[in-house]
Amino acid sequence: MSHTAPASAPPRGELAARVERVTKSYGSGDAEVRALDDVTVGIPKGRFTAIMGPSGSGKSTLMHCMAGLDAVTSGEVFIGDIELTRLDDKRLTRLRRDRVGFIFQAFNLVPTLSALENITLPLDIAGRKADQAWLDTVIDTVGLRPRLKHRPSELSGGQQQRVACARALASRPEIIFADEPTGNLDSRSGAEVLAFLRSSVREMGQTIVMVTHDPAAAAYSDEVLFLQDGRIVDTMADPTAEKVLERMKGFDLPKVVAP
Ligand SMILES: Nc1ncnc2c1ncn2[C@@H]1O[C@H](COP(=O)(O)OP(=O)(O)OP(=O)(O)O)[C@@H](O)[C@H]1O
């Protein structure tokens, strides 16, 4: 798989989002769970970043805090130069609507709307007009042109997730957060969606952050962040499924107790 950055890729080092010394706790006292423990990390622009780690390591929490869907206990979160923890709810909602795209495991399409209506829904809600040329590019890249009038129930799971991908891309967000986007798909449909996400990074310069359990999915990314116990414990550039699987096995080993 090629991981060549697009010719128009921003210079290395520019960040689309970052968190600084973020801690997120649930509950308090004896019942406190520290889901994120002093995490500092940046998400480079125009790159595909995967977040992996054992169950309960804090992957979803990190993504939700980064995307402004969940409030942090302490620390700072930035989308571009904007610090999210300083925004009131209204401004935060507007920022998410205008600058961030989301893809969820459960597709989250509106059943009564056609594929095309689902794709343009966030723009319609924001009162923005779709850039037709861009929309055409997105629709052709996800290969949905013959299916635009279909309702979600008339589409396969893979097609539905491609609609959700097109919906996330339609507004050209600065960053897309994808939470287990292939979790509900068979491996073939999953591969189609991942190939599309990969090409949207390579050819359209999109920035994507994806939480996944699947080493084969992580292999589509440029870099993997590994979380354990609420901390980033490792990173891997240009991952392969084999290398990621090897690294993940390390997390499952029982802790060796010295005799
Ligand atoms: N709303 C909540 N209330 C209490 N604890 C929570 C809540 N959400 C998450 N946690 C805890 O925070 C920790 C991190 O959870 P998180 O869902 O971020 O992990 P994850 O790596 O995404 O897990 P998985 O791979 O199983 O989805 C876990 O110990 C979890 O039980």
Automatic annotation (TrEMBL):
Keyword ATP-binding applies: yes
MF GO annotations: ATP binding
Superkingdom of the organism of origin: Bacteria
Pfam assignment, any one: ABC_tran
Keyword Transport carried by entry: yes
Domain ABC transporter: 17-254
InterPro entries named among the record's database cross-references: AAA+_ATPase, ABC_transporter-like_ATP-bd, ABC_transpr_LolD-like, MacB-like_ATP-bd, P-loop_NTPase
Keywords: ATP-binding, Nucleotide-binding, Transport
Protein name (database record): ABC transporter ATP-binding protein
Taxonomic classification: Bacteria, Bacillati, Actinomycetota, Actinomycetes, Streptosporangiales
